[in-house]
Amino acid sequence: MATPIPKNHCEFTLAEVADACGGSIHGDPNLRIRGISIDTRTIAAGEMFVALRGAAIDGHRYLAQAAERGAAAAIVEPGKRHATLPCIEVADPLIALGDLARRHLERRRAAHRIPVAAIGGAAGKTTTKELTALAARALFGETLSTPGNLNNRIGVPMTIFTLTERHRAAVLECGTNMRGEIAHLAKIVEPDAAMVLNVDLEHTEGLGTLDDVADEECTLFSTARRFAIAPAGDPLIIPRIPARLEQITFGKTSDATVRLADRIVGANGRAKIRIDLSHEIGDGARKVESEINLLGEAAALNCTAAIAMVAAMRGGRLSASDLRALGNALETAVAVPGRLAATTIGGAIVIDDTYNSNPRSIRAALDAAREVAAPTNARLVIAMGDMLELGAISPDAHRAAVRDVLAAKPATFVAVGAEMAAAIASLVGSDLPGNIVAAVDSAQAGPIVARTLQPGDIVLVKGSRGIAMEKIIGALRK
What we know:
The structure is a single chain. By secondary structure, this protein is of the alpha/beta class. The protein folds into three domains: 11-92, Udp-n-acetylmuramoylalanyl-d-glutamate--2,6- Diaminopimelate Ligase, Chain: A, domain 1; 112-331, 3-Layer(aba) Sandwich (UDP-N-acetylmuramoyl-L-alanine:D-glutamate ligase), CATH 3.40.1190; 341-477, Mur ligase, C-terminal domain (Protein-Tyrosine Phosphatase, Chain A). Helices cover 35% and strands 21% of the residues. It contains 15 helices and 22 strands. The strands form four sheets. The protein has a nine-stranded mixed sheet with strand order 9-10-8-11-12-13-14-15-16, with helices on both faces. Helix 13 (418-428) links the parallel strand 20 (412-416) and strand 21 (436-439). The longest helix is centred in the N-terminal third of the chain and has 19 residues, at 93-111. The radius of gyration is 24 Å and the shape is globular. The relative contact order is 0.09.
């Protein structure tokens, strides 16, 4: 499910690159490069190669290959220059990559007003980013948005480099699994409006406690130019918003600036929603009505978040025609692959939520699956894999997840991975009920789920990326 790095054609002189990232030039300062690359397998002639150092790969080992493929220059660490390739030496090429992206974004903003949105949070970022981009296109025209899951210190800069003179807005997703990552991204993006969608237990192995997660996520507000977007009344987020920022909130409560006022679910999970706006940001009837093809209440709340964000990007009231356009845009939304995406296999509805997992997203997925099953009283089959990167809280989090699964009363519960197995053993004991089956991994779980499948079933498949739960869906297709 890895998203390919998009190609770009942004132009710099060597002197401009050095100025942006504070490096020292070894070559002609007037040399012009066209395009930034981090991969010599796809680099094109005339591009600049950034030699990144990772846990397993050191980009400096590929400088000769970059030169052979026609690279114009490279960004390298001190003392790592190539004999013939013009280079700029910097202390850290990864930081330089972000600095250069920030400079490109500044140039585009200077040429034309481009509202820039940054979206962070524990769960639902990608879906909300896609919804916000749809809404932004309806109001502003061509909009750059983060492709797939390119939301880290490499993906965000490489997305920004694809910003061109044609774009009239940008929606960037910002993720983290270690302390300081959001601060780094916030410095690059400096958004007009920053959103923290939610805070919950995620990547706690690298981030720490729930308060530590909140501190990390809310750092996204630190460089926002005008607006902070947050769930109404959230005790972990609202107090962390800088006083200088204007707040726009979303949610179900009456105090939300953008409120989910009504939601009626059809037999297929498609929902008619009505979203009400406060008088500060909406004109006319101040409501958005739409029928969305997204499962679960969480998706409808993501729609409220998207409307809150485009209101901030607009920087003024949304007109009645704006609100109609937004309603029409939301109706075109489709589920992001691996994120509560429903498909029919063997007469059963299979809900693919295999991209990643944490406690909040498990609760949202279970609610969505139960909601789809309820109208026809369908059997519910749940395949749930381990949640990774939770550190010390992992045993408690998995026990809570198992309780949530059992509360959904599935006909069959296939638990995948050591953490799930340990949680079940501690709660149920060694003598498992007939409807609970433990599998070592997703490859073993696939045939188990396939054997239980009946036409009319609702099947939820979910787990962290490293558990590869999509193998179960592959087994069902066979």
